[in-house]
Amino acid sequence: MATAEMTYTWGTGRRKTAVARVRIREGTGQFVVNGLEADDYFLVETERIAVRAPLFATEMGGRVDVFVNVKGSGKSSQSGAVVMGLARALKEFRSDLEPALRQGEFLTRDPRMVERKKYGHKKARRSFQFSKR
Fold this sequence. Notes:
Elements: E1 9-15, E2 18-26, E3 31-33, E4 36-37, H1 38-41, H2 45-58, E5 64-71, H3 75-93, H4 98-103
Parallel strand pairs: 3-5
Antiparallel strand pairs: 1-2, 2-5, 3-4
C-alpha cells in the first residue's frame, strides 16, 4: 500500500556516456548513489560538492531523500549526470524551484562528447608520425 510519503519524483541526467536515474522523496536528507552514501561513492571533494549543489541552491538539503542509480563513463561525468538528474527531479517535485535551478545552470545539458576516430589517423585528430626521409 503506497502512501503519499512513499511517492517518488524521477529525473534523468546525462553527461558524455553517463546516465543517472534520480529518485527523490520527502525525507531527512539521505543521499545514496548506487547503494553507497554519496561521500563514499564520489571520493573527490569537487564531485561531492557538485552533486549537492542543486540542493543548496534550492535550500532543500535536509528536506528530501535522494536515491541515484548511475552508470557509464567516469566518476566526473557521472557526477555531472547526477547534478542534472537531481535538478530535473527537483523541478518536477516543486515547480517554483525552476528559476533557482536555471540560474545555477543545473538544467543545461553539456553537449560535449568524445570525437570519433577517423581512418588514416591514430586518434580523432592525431596523425601517424610523418618521416620525410
